[in-house]
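Usage

Read records sequentially. Each one opens with the input sequence:
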Amino acid sequence: MKKIAYKFAAAILSLTLIAAIALGILANALTAITESSRQVMNTEVGRIGLLHGIYGDYLGMYMKLYSHVNVNLVRTMDKMADEFMVQREEVWADMEEYEAGISSSEVQGAFDILEAGLKEFDGYADKVIDYSRKGNKDMANTIISSNISKLNSSIAENIELLLNYSAQDLEAGKALLAEKEEQSYMIIKAAIALLLAAAVLVMIISIRV
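and closes with the structure output:
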């Protein structure tokens, strides 16, 4: 009787061990998928959000320059200039954060052009605000129409280019997730096969006993 009990105990222990191994493999696969999904979402979706934020703040600054030139009350002009500076800080903070995640030469090239355009915009904007504040509205309008307007298309094009790169990376990330998902299905099938084999083993041992 003791031998039979030992055999049953050994069979059950084997089944439990195989089940634990199979579940561990399955848990690792699911964890990998979850982590990959979180990384893709946090990285590319976050970068797309940064680009939209940069362009939105740029358009806001552009409109504030027009508003600054079209008002004469000093207090109102000062308020607009302060708001402009706040948005400028937000733009460069987002630019710095975006650049920290660049991993390809193509993206870096487009980013460098965008950065140069925004720096040029900043230089012209300071002149516009200064001329407008001093009452030289004609000169301020001339700078906007002759210089800043030409930067709009370049900045918009490079923002769009960077968005396209992020969209491509997002699709590549989705493809990687799909591949990992397929691998997890294979692992699940292997785990089920192991459990079935263990169950058959226990059955054979039981019949022989």
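Summary fields computed downstream for this record:
- Residues 8 and 206 are 7 Å apart (CA to CA).
- The mean pLDDT is 82.
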